[in-house]
Amino acid sequence: MSSLLLFASILHLINSRFEFTNVECTSLSKKFGEFEYCYLKSVNRTFKYWSAKLKLYQKPIKALEVNLALMKRFNGYKPFLYNITVNACKLFVNPKSSPVAKFFYDSIQTFTNMNHSCPYNHDILLDKLPIEFVNHRLTKILPFPEGNYLIQTHWSSSGSPCALIKVYGTLS
Ligand SMILES: *[C@@H]1O[C@H](CO)[C@@H](O)[C@H](O)[C@H]1NC(C)=O
Ligand SMILES: *[C@@H]1O[C@H](CO)[C@@H](O)[C@H](O)[C@H]1NC(C)=O
Ligand SMILES: *[C@@H]1O[C@H](CO)[C@@H](O)[C@H](O)[C@H]1NC(C)=O
């Protein structure tokens, strides 16, 4: 990389900001469970968080896979850089198995009770994940171009679809 390009990207990184615009949590199997709530809340200009609760009807969960796809809006959302599937049950035991999954996992692990390996025999909570914290990690670690992004996670258990979680955001 030329030094000019490098300088430009450093400048860009310092100034860039990832803003969450929307979250959507959808249960894909009413037998598996349902979301009691899933929302973004702005407390004030600097503190915005994401909370969600998934009530599980079939406990314990012994198998859980997650497909994580990053998409960027061009003419509709198109796959962008990452599309990976990992065993969510083993992620916590062996977080190094996938660096990308580990990055997303590290971003949420202190804010969720899903931060241990399977089985999960309790409802799943995401408790006030501060957006600033994720902003910081995203813009510091992932030097992405500006635009609108969608982080889509598709959850399934032994091949059966369970839930679809979409997080929309803008990098400016
Ligand atoms: C925003 O709210 C948080 C949590 O209540 C508080 O700690 C923080 O000081 C507030 N910031 C501003 C600028 O009011
Ligand atoms: C991710 O890759 C899988 C397997 O190739 C494909 O079926 C799926 O549609 C892809 N997801 C997205 C969002 O493009
Ligand atoms: C796991 O989540 C709980 C809250 O549900 C938190 O108190 C604990 O510190 C977390 N553990 C790790 C290792 O992040």
Describe this structure in words.
- There is one protein chain.
- With 172 residues, the protein is α+β, with helices and mostly antiparallel strands.
- It is globular and about 40 Å long.
- It has a 5-stranded antiparallel sheet with strand order 1-8-7-4-5. Strands 2-3-6 form a 3-stranded antiparallel sheet.
- Helices cover 22% and strands 46% of the residues.
- It has one domain: Distorted Sandwich (Ganglioside M2 Activator Protein, Chain: A).
- The protein is built from 4 helices and 8 strands.
- Bound molecules: 2-acetamido-2-deoxy-beta-D-glucopyranose (3 copies).
- One 2-acetamido-2-deoxy-beta-D-glucopyranose (NAG) binds next to loops.
Going by CATH, the architecture would be: Distorted Sandwich
CATH superfamily caption: Ganglioside GM2 activator
Strand content: over 45%
Q: Termini, distance in Å?
A: 23 Å
Poorly predicted ranges (pLDDT <50, ≥5 residues)? 1-14
Which fold name is given in CATH as the topology? Answer: Ganglioside M2 Activator Protein, Chain: A
Structural class: alpha+beta
Which structural traits does this protein have?
globular; Ganglioside M2 Activator Protein, Chain: A; alpha+beta; 8 strands; 5-stranded antiparallel beta sheet; single chain; binds 2-acetamido-2-deoxy-beta-D-glucopyranose; 172 residues; 3-stranded antiparallel beta sheet; disordered N terminus
Describe what is shown at a glance.
By secondary structure, this protein is an alpha+beta fold.
Helices and strands, with pairings:
Blueprint: H1 3-15, E1 18-27, E2 33-42, E3 48-56, E4 65-73, E5 77-87, H2 88-91, H3 99-108, E6 124-130, H4 131-141, E7 147-157, E8 160-171
Antiparallel strand pairs: 1-8, 2-3, 3-6, 4-5, 4-7, 7-8
The protein binds 2-acetamido-2-deoxy-beta-D-glucopyranose (NAG) (3 copies).
